[in-house]
Amino acid sequence: MTHAVVVALAFLGIVGQVLVGLLLVGGLAWLAGARAPLDSVRAAIAGHELLLAFVVTAIATGGSLFFSEAAGFVPCELCWFQRIAMYPLLVTTILAFRYRDRGAARYLLPLPVAGAGVSVYHLLVENGVVEQSQACLASAPGGCATRWVDEFGYVTIPTLALTAFALVFALLLSAARGASRA
Questions:
Q1: Which residues, 6 or more positions from 32, have their beta carbon under 8 angstroms from its beta carbon?
Q2: How many CB atoms within 10 Å of residue 131?
Q3: pLDDT for 61-87, tens place per residue?
Q4: Phi–psi pair at 178, nearest 5 degrees
Q5: What phi and psi values does residue 151 have, to the nearest 5 degrees?
Q6: Dmax over Cα atoms in the chain, in whole Å?
Q7: Parent domain of 103
């Protein structure tokens, strides 16, 4: 059961990474002057960006709670910092959606940026590029370099977190842009 859930979450992570990749390509095309593809995506999700951001944060929050509470993976110090950035987004995005406050997105943007920064650092520690601190070693068995999840050759917990933060950032950015045009 646990492995099936881990694989399902890893699969959702890969779907999210494909979406982030497509958004990056669309963003580069938009910067190069081909505005139609990204504008059509933004038009399709207009008014629903905060709800979609909530869905992403709900899956990420549920996944992190599953990993620690059901699977028994001990969250390391860096995992906690990522949770600190993700968990408030769960509540704030649904409230902003409920009250149709797309302008709130601009105030939420720092959270996925900070969380993504911690995720990137965590990936560097996990892959041995950066040496983990003593706090990391003391925070969980094996420290921050422990790979509790390693699916499809690269999907780990910080990879999943980075994917969620990137998607949430893109959705909040779209909501903020939509609010400034209204």
A1: none
A2: 9
A3: 999 999 999 999 999 999 999 999 999
A4: -65, -35
A5: -105, 150
A6: 51
A7: 2-181
Q: Which amino acid is at 72?
A: G
Q: How many domains does the chain have?
A: 1
Give the pair of three-digit tokens for residue 99. Answer: 């009250």
155: β partners:
151
Could you tell me the pTM of the whole model? 0.95
| Cα–Cα distance, 170 to 55 (Å, whole number) | 14
Reported as a single tens digit per residue, the pLDDT across 100-153 is 999 999 999 999 999 999 999 999 999 999 999 898 889 888 899 999 999 999
Of 84, 91, 102, 101, the residue nearest 172 (C-alpha): 102
CA distance 88 to 162: 16
Smallest Cα–Cα separation from 67: which of 123, 8, 134, 113? Answer: 8
Please choose, from the candidates 102, 106, 96, the residue with its C-alpha nearest in 3D space to the C-alpha of residue 179. 102
Inter-CA distances, 24 with 42, 46, 52, 94, 175, Å: 13, 18, 18, 25, 17
- Tell me how many degrees the CA angle 90-148-121 measures, rounded to the nearest 5: 65
Per-residue CA distances from 109 to 93, 112, 168, 175, 178 (Å): 11, 6, 9, 10, 14
Residue 73, phi-psi category: left (phi > 0), alpha (psi -120 to 50), beta (remainder): beta
The answer to whether the CB of 94 falls within 8 A of the CB of 54 is yes
Residue type, 31: L
